[in-house]
Design a protein that fits this description.
The complex is a heterodimer of chains A (74) and B (268). The mean pLDDT of chain A is 92. With 74 residues, chain A is an alpha+beta fold. Chain A starts with a strand and ends with a helix. In chain A, a hairpin with a 5-residue loop joins β2 and β3. Chain A has one domain. In chain A, the strands form two sheets. In chain A, strands 2-3-4 form a three-stranded antiparallel beta sheet. Chain A is globular. Chain A is 20% helix and 32% strand. Chain B is an alpha/beta fold. Among the domains of chain B are: 79 residues, no CATH class; 79 residues, Translation Initiation Factor IF3 (2-Layer Sandwich). Chain B is built from ten helices and eight strands. In chain B, the strands form two sheets. Chain B has a four-stranded mixed beta sheet with strand order 5-6-8-7, sandwiched between helices. A three-stranded mixed beta sheet of chain B has the order 1-3-2, with no helix packed on it. Classes of the chains: A alpha+beta (74), B alpha/beta (268). The interface between A and B is large, with 33 and 48 residues.
Chain lengths: 74, 268
């Protein structure tokens, strides 16, 4: 089974994950705007880079090709 | 197969739908213009879910079942990324470029190998799917692996790895190391034209590369260009070069299908 979302639903998806977007476009915790979410490499994630999440619900995935290649090998 | 997910989803919308659990394999979160938060797409086997049409309680319940599904190993992914991920899975199983890539495993550093692997994936994508955003993906490679990664992507697309470096590598390990350094690290054999290069910069680069090529004992310089604008620019640069510096011995190859121009400058 796949769970997907389209580009225009990103904000709604982040909302159900209890995340928000700060003024600089970074994805942050809804209850703590100073806490940015991180990808598996410890990098902060901007909304335009946001591809999704995987197991643990806290591992954010970026949409660039190297990140997706790494994901494909897990 | 994920029966519990569909049971919970049915209850969430008061059981107004009945699902054949094996029929629908994608839950797609999207906005829809229907009056229902969940719309069936029979043809594509998709359940389209519009979160904006859920009330707070339904959102909370959807969040719970989605979180549980993700914890079980399912991904929540944006559509384009999912599409690329599936293509990556296929690529990783084996493809027309696998034997070329495997030759370089252990022969080049890890970053170069990763950049090369991504570059062969892009080539595979171009051949089989002809995507419109290939330049974005190439930029992803140079963003991650720097100018060298971007150069590897260009060399790979143009066939240098299998047509030049592999034959050299099969003949002599020392020659491979020497030419790999020259072609990949020093960029001595090629110039790839892109839209951000000004004419004056191109002319200066050509001058410097010809000078370097003589030092390294190379007898050719290849200039690669793609697209009408870039092709016009490089032709204009060569005209200027011939008028203002010295006459170049230029041979050309045009690949009409992809609007590609390859110029071979013979260095005397």
């Amino acid at each position: 089974m796949k769970i997907t979302f389209d580009e225009k639903s990103k904000s709604e998806v982040l909302d159900i994950l209890d995340k928000a977007v700060d003024a600089s476009g970074y994805i942050v915790e809804k209850d703590n705007a100073n806490q940015k979410v991180l990808n598996i490499d410890g990098e902060e994630v901007k909304i335009e880079e946001f591809a999704g999440i995987r197991k643990g619900s806290e591992v954010f995935i970026k949409n660039d090709l190297p990140s997706l290649m790494e994901l494909s090998k897990i | 197969m994920n029966n519990w997910f569909f049971d919970k989803l049915t209850k969430l919308i008061d059981g107004k739908f009945s699902f054949n659990n094996n029929s629908f394999i994608t839950i797609n979160i999207t906005k829809n213009s229907h009056n229902s938060p969940i719309v069936l797409d029979d043809k594509n086997k998709v359940l389209n879910v519009d979160l904006k049409q859920f009330d707070d309680k339904q959102k909370e319940q959807f969040k719970e079942i989605t979180s549980k599904s993700i914890d079980e190993g399912n991904y929540l992914l944006e559509n384009n990324s999912f599409d690329i991920l599936e293509k990556l899975y296929e690529f990783n199983k084996g493809n027309d470029f696998s034997k070329h890539l495997s030759f370089f495993n252990g022969k080049i550093n890890d970053d170069d190998y990763s950049a090369l692997e991504l570059s062969f994936f892009l080539r595979n994508l171009m051949v089989n799917h002809n995507p419109t955003n290939i330049y974005d993906y190439k930029k992803n490679i140079s963003d991650r692996f720097g100018k060298r990664g971007g150069h590897i992507a260009n060399l790979c697309t143009a066939g240098y790895f299998e047509e030049l470096l592999i034959p050299i590598g099969k003949t002599s390990e020392d020659d491979f190391k020497y030419y790999y350094d020259l072609i990949v690290k020093r960029e001595a054999l090629t110039l790839f034209i892109h839209r951000d290069l000004k004419k004056s910069e191109i002319i200066s680069i050509i001058k410097n590369k010809i000078k370097s090529a003589k030092l390294y004992g190379l007898q050719v310089l290849y200039i690669h260009s793609r697209g009408k604008r870039n092709n016009r620019t490089i032709r204009s640069c060569l005209d200027d070069f011939n008028k203002n510096h010295f006459k170049l011995d230029v041979g050309e190859k045009v690949i009409l299908e992809y609007d590609i121009l390859v110029l071979k400058i013979t260095i005397k």
